[in-house]
Design brief:
Blueprint lengths: L1 E5 L6 E2 L3 H14 L15 H12 L6 H21 L4 E2 L3 H9 L4 E6 L4 H10 L8 E3 L7 H15 L9 E5 L2 H9 L3 E5 L6 H6 L4 E3 L5 H8 L2
Parallel strand pairs: 1-4, 1-6, 4-5, 6-7, 7-8
Antiparallel strand pairs: 2-3
Length: 227
Amino acid sequence: MRILVFDIDGTLLLSGGAGARALDRAFLDRLGVPEAMKGIHPDGLTDYDIIRRMGERTLGHAIEPTEADAIRDRYAYYLKEELESSPGFRVLPGVVDLLERLAREEDLLLGLVTGNFEKTGMMKLARGGLDHYFRFGGWGSDSIDRAALTRIGIERGRALAAGPVSDERVFLIGDTVHDIRCAREAGARPIAVATGSTSADALRERKPEFLLPDLTDPDRFLAIVRS
């Protein structure tokens, strides 16, 4: 058995800025602060970490956990609207064909490790018709720390496996340097894909075990995960 865990944003799909717009609306709704996402680069961050940074930038102090949860709930409300109307939303090239191919392989467990909250991450996947491919996940709602949620997600995958799964049979697929780092910290093998905002050269500098330009070649991808 092999475990494959995928990042969402920039790896499987692009939301066209729907997440940032929904967070801005949630922050304005709860705290009366406009454009709270301005200057914050969310790539590789967990959603709770993004909310924390929004508070520190605009209010000058940390947001109380209960307020962060209230912002999370408003974010989910607005994200539904933003995803439905986002002209830039798209599933990235090759993703559907690859997932269809992987789903037919009986010895592969497909999951997610992402900074998204579980509810809103699943909303993004559902918008792209991808939600049914994944059996487990590690989410931004599990931990503010991406490395910690990565370990949580992988252990959930191991719990579903028919027997023990060694680290060399666990692969993390992502588009940022944070994905590479967290894969290593969790003992997984990083497969970097240059489909997000991080360039192939920047990814290469972090020396992932594998680097792909995109996910359009399922034969090559399968050869990697069976290596």
